[in-house]
């Protein structure tokens, strides 16, 4: 019997996210491998944030037989509830620990440590001496072999890969219970679900910067395996999932996948997949997707429209289909083998707007596209920035809705064509990128938010995460959740309904809904439309306010008093 420790330093890959509130497939599959070896084995799971807050967790790590460190940010991101581990922390926390056997797993082991967009990844050489092994293959497969060989590293191949997607079935199901050890369990934890590995566009090389084509042609997981894994997660108390671990959910079991670069979508397969998920997720609060190829959607509008309708039938609102647009500059598209032209992307956006723009029960649109633009790619010039800006303005002028815009600089990863280019283009265009980002924030993102969520929109079940000054910040659970600044200080890690009253560039300002006028903090009352400081003090000095008539009597303007009634409650 073995005791295995998992230190989750989080991953952020093109097709997999594991930064809280997400838990990636890595710790779940690894735990499944440990328990497949022997159900009596013990698995101790810790996140890097737990170690940061309380280094005493390291005492527990010293007591295990095998320590598996999961790491690798290969897609630049912005995080609120956790920060991926960096090589310096590995040296600080693990550098002096001799026992146990230590393995590095995840994208960092294969491609290095991404630090931030625009910078070359750090080589694993900076931490290599700390580990007994660097796992270049599939973590769960290697660890299962290692346990079967009684922890004899010399007896296994650290580059061993899974045979196919069917081979992860047991790992995925057996490892589901590890979620109970995550600090965000059960209320706010969302599990990333894998539907297939590989990229349909790998037959032409795929995008120049992406690691997914390195997995080869698509290998689809059997539907029953996906359904049974989600059922196991549900049995263990999970209530949030995202089908994000694939390059394009619209291409799951697509016709001629592996033979055509843009395979025709298969609505019948998507219906079967989502219907089966629905049957095992009764009571779930979040069922979302992630990546979708706009080139596929534009080429097959009828099939894609049908698939979007199927997803909406079985998902939860606030869903986002992330479009990896990267650039609309024809030269950049050609030199980096990108997915779609500007017109194709716009057509894909229109299709999802037709089907998914309507509001759902939680206040968010049902299903909208998200736009990823990536800078520092081959062929990029100053004209690229102008073309990308014009593209975003066209979205605004057409009054199309998109959930969010991600502006990032490429990380030139080892193993990808962009690694040969490195950061030369990014360094040359760094100031251009900064100006572009500022311009998009001010002139595009804020108006898009206003169009999508007018003042007075009620957002349901916002999970409070942190307090800064006199503002509590939270998000709904799901794909690319909108940041909500709630005026006032409230308990953390609870769900609140809120009313939108104002906008940042990428966030909204809100007050609790309904606002209990007799107990609410002054700051929240001031924020009500038309109230301000003087009227807020008038309300506070006359509390408790009994009813509408009493409120009108207290206020100097009956019209203002009546206008705030939809936002408030007289509960005492």
State mean pLDDT (0 to 100 scale): 94
Q: State the end-to-end CA separation.
A: 58 Å
| Count of runs of 4 or more consecutive helical residues | 21
Quickly name the level 1 CATH class of the largest domain. Alpha Beta
Oligomer: single chain
How would you portray this structure in words?
The protein has 572 residues and is of the alpha/beta class. It folds into three domains: 164 residues, Rossmann fold (3-Layer(aba) Sandwich); 210 residues, 2-Layer Sandwich (Transcription Regulator spoIIAA), CATH 3.30.750.200; 112 residues, Nucleic acid-binding proteins (OB fold (Dihydrolipoamide Acetyltransferase, E2P), Beta Barrel). Helix content is 35%, strand content 21%. It contains 21 helices and 23 strands. The strands form six sheets. Strands 1, 2, 4, 5, 6 and 7 form a six-stranded mixed sheet that branches. Strands 17-18-19-21-20 form a five-stranded mixed β-barrel. Strands 3-8-11-12 form a four-stranded parallel sheet. Strand 18 and strand 19 form a beta hairpin. Helix 9 packs parallel to helix 11. The chain is globular and about 85 Å long. The mean pLDDT is 94.
Short characterization:
With 572 residues, the chain is an alpha/beta fold. The protein is 35% helix and 21% strand.
List the helices and strands and how they pair.
Layout: E1 3-13, E2 16-17, E3 22-23, H1 25-37, E4 42-47, H2 48-53, H3 57-62, E5 66-73, H4 87-94, E6 101-105, H5 107-111, E7 133-134, H6 139-148, H7 169-174, E8 190-194, E9 196-197, E10 219-220, H8 223-235, E11 240-245, H9 267-280, E12 286-289, E13 291-292, H10 294-299, H11 301-314, E14 319-326, H12 330-336, H13 342-356, E15 367-375, H14 382-397, E16 404-409, H15 418-421, H16 424-428, H17 430-452, E17 458-468, E18 471-475, E19 483-487, E20 495-503, E21 507-512, E22 515-516, H18 522-526, H19 532-541, H20 548-554, H21 558-563, E23 568-569
Parallel strand pairs: 1-4, 1-5, 3-8, 5-6, 6-7, 8-11, 11-12, 13-14, 14-15, 15-16, 19-21, 22-23
Antiparallel strand pairs: 1-2, 9-10, 17-18, 17-20, 18-19, 20-21
């Amino acid at each position: 019997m073995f005791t295995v420790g998992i230190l989750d330093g989080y991953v952020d890959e093109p097709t997999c996210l594991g930064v809280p509130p997400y838990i990636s497939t890595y710790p779940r599959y690894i735990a499944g491998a440990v328990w497949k070896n022997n159900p009596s084995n013990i698995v101790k799971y810790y996140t890097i944030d737990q170690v940061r807050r309380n280094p005493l967790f390291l005492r527990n790590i010293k007591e295990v037989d095998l320590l598996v460190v999961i790491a690798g940010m290969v897609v630049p991101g912005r995080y609120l509830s956790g920060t991926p581990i960096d090589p310096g922390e590995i040296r600080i926390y693990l550098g002096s620990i001799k026992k146990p056997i230590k393995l590095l797993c995840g994208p960092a082991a294969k491609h290095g440590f991404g630090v931030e967009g625009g910078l070359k990844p750090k080589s694993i050489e900076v931490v290599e001496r700390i580990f007994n092994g660097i796992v270049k293959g599939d973590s769960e497969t290697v660890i299962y072999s290692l346990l079967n060989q009684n922890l004899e590293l010399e007896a296994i191949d650290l580059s061993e890969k899974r045979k196919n997607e069917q081979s992860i079935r047991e790992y995925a199901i057996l490892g589901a219970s590890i979620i109970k050890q995550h600090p965000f369990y059960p209320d706010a934890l969302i599990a990333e679900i894998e539907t297939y590995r590989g990229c349909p566009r790998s037959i032409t090389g795929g995008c120049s910067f992406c690691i997914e084509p390195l997995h080869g042609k698509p290998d689809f997981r059997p539907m029953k395996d996906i359904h049974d894994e989600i059922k196991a997660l549900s049995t263990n108390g999970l209530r949030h999932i995202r089908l994000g671990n694939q390059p394009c959910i619209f291409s799951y079991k697509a016709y001629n996948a592996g033979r055509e670069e843009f395979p025709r979508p298969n609505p019948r397969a998507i219906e079967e997949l989502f219907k089966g998920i629905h049957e095992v997720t009764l009571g779930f609060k979040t069922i979302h997707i992630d990546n979708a190829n706009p080139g596929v959607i534009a080429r097959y509008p009828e099939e894609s429209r049908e698939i979007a309708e199927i997803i909406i039938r079985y998902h939860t609102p606030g869903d986002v289909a992330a479009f990896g647009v990267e650039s609309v500059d024809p030269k950049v598209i050609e030199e980096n083998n990108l997915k779609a032209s500007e017109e194709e992307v716009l057509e894909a956006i229109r299709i999802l707007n037709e089907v998914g723009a309507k509001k759902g029960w939680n206040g968010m649109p049902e299903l909208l596209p998200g736009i990823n633009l990536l800078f520092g790619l081959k062929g990029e010039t100053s004209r690229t920035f102008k073309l990308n800006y014009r593209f975003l303005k066209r979205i605004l002028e057409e009054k199309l809705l998109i959930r969010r815009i991600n502006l990032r600089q490429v990380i030139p990863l080892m193993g990808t064509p962009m690694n040969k280019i490195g950061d030369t283009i990014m360094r040359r265009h760094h100031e251009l990128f900064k100006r572009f980002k500022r311009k998009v924030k001010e002139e595009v993102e804020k108006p898009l938010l206003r169009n999508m969520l007018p003042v007075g929109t009620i957002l349901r079940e916002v999970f409070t995460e942190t307090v800064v000054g006199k503002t509590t910040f939270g998000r709904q659970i799901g794909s690319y959740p909108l940041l909500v600044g709630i005026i006032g200080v409230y308990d953390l890690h609870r769900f609140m309904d809120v009313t939108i009253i104002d906008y940042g560039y990428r966030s909204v300002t809100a007050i609790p809904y309904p606002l209990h006028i007799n107990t609410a903090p002054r700051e929240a009352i001031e924020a009500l439309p038309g109230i301000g400081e003087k009227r807020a003090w008038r309300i506070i000095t006359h509390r408790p306010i009994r009813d509408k008539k009493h409120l009108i009597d207290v206020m100097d303007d009956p019209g203002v008093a009546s206008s705030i009634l939809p936002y408030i409650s007289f509960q005492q």
